[in-house]
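Take a specimen:
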Amino acid sequence: MNIIPLRVAILLPGDRVTRFQADIAHFLRDLSVAPMVFSLPWPGREPGLLFSLYQRLDRLLTPVAVDPFAPAVLPEGLRALELSCRPGWPDELACAARKDRLDLLIVPGNLEIPPGLPAAFRHGLLVLDFLDFASQAPVQAFAALADPAPCWEPRLVWHTAQQPPRLLYRSAAAVFPLSLGRTAAPACVTAARFVPRMVRELQDGGPGAWAARATPLEVAPPVAVPGDAAMLRFLPRLARRAAATAWRDIFFRPQWFLALRRGGGDPFDLGGFTPAFPPDASGWADPFPFVRDGVTHLFFEHIDKDTGHGSIAVMTQAPDGTFGPPHTVLHTPHHLSYPFVFEWGGEVYMVPESAQAARAELFRAVRFPLEWEPAATLLSGVRAVDSTLFEHEGRWWLMANLRLEGGSSWDELSVFYADSPLGPFVPHPGNPVVSDVRRARPAGRVFRHGGRLYRPAQDCSGHYGRALAILEIETLNPYAYRETEVARHEAAVLGQGDSLHTYNSVPGLEAVDGHRYIPRLTFSRQRPGG
């Protein structure tokens, strides 16, 4: 494969550099691209006093692992040129671009692009339009938080000569109703990688690769940096949300529970499930039924009521159809969940979610279903969440969300393939193949229905595990991936709770899970499969 050499520039507002901007430059350096930096003293309006105070308080009360807006420094050795602040800066920038024969300009923030500027760069401009250019305030995230909307959408917009702006990359991200930092920071950690992903695609496939993926841009009014008037409307709403959340957390506690349905099953109609609540205030989630020698076993995540620590447990179905008491089968110092159980070569294996250990580990049953031993490490050095394996057209595929440092584990799906479920697994060149909080994270086994291939996925917009989406996998090979949503199930199908985030089935039994809040002084009791 011939890599196209590129001359790239970044336009920054003044001499203030944030981690978000510096990360883009570092990622480009990893692609052997040393960007030139243009500094533009931009007389933009600073955020209002109330907005600035809210940001400071928000950082204090809800700190994030990585703050994309914290001060940072650019990589050493980059060429830099300061533009003048006069109205003629576009001509000055265009002249410098033609002189240095620059291919691409990256603009980290929404900026009105002068009509003639894209023509000065061979491949045009890439604009990350969800930030305010001058202040780097996450204005789109704030607009979504103020509603609040269930999600918001960082975007990468492509400007070229004699073409209207086109959408090149987008990724729906979650909204946290009480915090701008928690809403904006993980999404911006992800969005900082939009540019290197597209630059790599340009290097590998040329401008035709961008033209093939670009879509018309939906015209939307620009979002301004919130002033004091906007904050005076927002803060009372924020206070009411905080009060409601505090009331709930004082008098109630969260609990995940299972729900079961007997019969042949229909993944596109989830009515008629019977809840199965834990006998105390602990939680049960991620159900994976599995049949061995004619007996159905139900594996699930057991959540400790005091620590929230997850371990893997199993219940075995009796001849009368009820399930016996749970038995712990895997417990480690790090959190475990999502016990993906499958059979291969006459043996039974499990891949529990163990992102805290920075690996995806395969276990083999020594004495099924109670004793397991490590068999292989499928992925290492990554925080792989909810690893899901299946065989398709002679290959084994592994799907998982890879959590970046400071990023979210909800919004990007990556795919790997191998000759066997033992690996070694090769990353798909299109990773992440899905970038959307409404359908990225796996929610159970990939299954066939009517000769077609489907995967359940979590919709984590609004809050974690809010709903369940069913996607038809239309294309899956080592070069391409494409899927289409065909069904969506809200938590209302369970008759209670606010979440529905796993679906699995075996002949005669389907299992899902839900999430509810129970009084801290009392809790419901019901035998599994009642």
User: Anything to note?
Assistant: Helices lie at 19-30, 49-61, 89-99, 139-146, 180-191, 194-205, 207-213, 228-251. The two ends are 59 Å apart (CA to CA).
